[in-house]
Amino acid sequence: MPVSLERLVTITGGVLEGDGNHLVDGVATLHDAQNHHVAALTNSRYKREVEKSSAGCILVAEKDAEGLDCNRILHPDPSLGFAMVSRYFNPPRAVVPGVADSAVIDVTATVATSAEIGANTVVGANAVIGEGVYIGPGCMILDNAIVGESSRLIANVTLCEGVEIGTHCLLHPGAVIGSDGFGFANEAGKWLKVPQIGRVVVGNLVEIGANTSIDRGSLRDTVIGDGVKLDNQIQIAHNVVIGAHTAIAGLVGIAGSTTIGSHCTIAGEAGIVGHLQIGDYCHIGARAMVTRSLKERSNVSGGVPAVESGLWRRMIARLRRIDAMADRISALEKMKK
């Protein structure tokens, strides 16, 4: 439904410059936007794209707005403003209460009347499905699992026994929550399985990407804090604790009993060994291998092992000069001869 820019700026915040009565009904890139779209300039390098854009309104930082001749919303963080606009125009589809004919619901399970249960879903004994929950097709909600209010499991998600999902969470296809942790004891050269008797407890407003696996605790619970965002194909081992509002990119592996603080960012393919303490507000770069605990606000990059980012950049700069240095050493050796 079209909305005026005057109304839109009350959603995004910021300052509107231009025609407040202009109507928009969606979002697009600067390149693709038409007169009824909102676009955003999130990087000063693309300012020339604004001049060629047909967008009906552009979200832009005040420092980049000079010389622009278009409807615009001056925003301290255009990326955030654009996200707000996109969420406004693209809400999730409404939950349609009911249970598909092919779903199997244990007689001891509790399913809210406002929940939607998709085709071929199984809900086990004493499981609890909260108000406004969406369970898509092919999901497995095993015994004693809990799904909190307004959470969504898109399709083929597995919640193993006793898993607890908070409110307003989003779990993408193929996620497996609460499978056994990798726990074995060596008995005369053979591996003896150690029962994994903890749970996985997921907080509120958590998003878990496709094919991500979170193992149940061996004794204590594996815990994912409120607001955590997990990308696709992440492995989180038993007893791990992840603090609130930490974001982790794809293919990260976190070994058992590591605690990660709040508001951390972990880039793709990073690895973190077990039994570490990662402080709040840390950043771990792509493909970094973290083998030691990190203090609050640490910033590490590189390969094996990860080191402080500034040191890593200096090391790389020196590596790039290594051929020239070798030539100079060779020349000096010849002079000595």
From TrEMBL:
PROSITE patterns (UniProt xref): HEXAPEP_TRANSFERASES (PS00101)
Any one of the GO BP annotations: lipid A biosynthetic process
Active site annotation, chain numbering: 238
CDD domains on file: LbH_LpxD
Pathway: Bacterial outer membrane biogenesis; LPS lipid A biosynthesis
Domain of life: Bacteria
UniProt KW keywords: Acyltransferase, Lipid A biosynthesis, Lipid biosynthesis, Lipid metabolism, Repeat, Transferase
GO CC annotation terms, alphabetical: membrane
Domain UDP-3-O-[3-hydroxymyristoyl] glucosamine N-acyltransferase non-repeat region: 22-87
Keyword Transferase: yes
MF-aspect GO terms: N-acyltransferase activity; UDP-3-O-[(3R)-3-hydroxyacyl]-glucosamine N-acyltransferase activity
InterPro entries: GMPPB_C, Hexapep, Hexapep_transf_CS, LpxD, Trimer_LpxA-like_sf, UDP_GlcNAc_AcTrfase_non-rep
Mannose-1-phosphate guanyltransferase C-terminal domain segment(s): 101-180
EC number(s) recorded for this UniProt protein: 2.3.1.191
Catalytic activity: a UDP-3-O-[(3R)-3-hydroxyacyl]-alpha-D-glucosamine + a (3R)-hydroxyacyl-[ACP] = a UDP-2-N,3-O-bis[(3R)-3-hydroxyacyl]-alpha-D-glucosamine + holo-[ACP] + H(+)
Keyword Cytoplasm in annotation: no
Subunit details: Homotrimer.
Family in the record: Belongs to the transferase hexapeptide repeat family. LpxD subfamily.
Free-text function comment from the UniProt entry: Catalyzes the N-acylation of UDP-3-O-acylglucosamine using 3-hydroxyacyl-ACP as the acyl donor. Is involved in the biosynthesis of lipid A, a phosphorylated glycolipid that anchors the lipopolysaccharide to the outer membrane of the cell.
Record-given protein name: UDP-3-O-acylglucosamine N-acyltransferase
Record organism: Solemya velum gill symbiont
Lineage: Bacteria, Pseudomonadati, Pseudomonadota, Gammaproteobacteria, sulfur-oxidizing symbionts
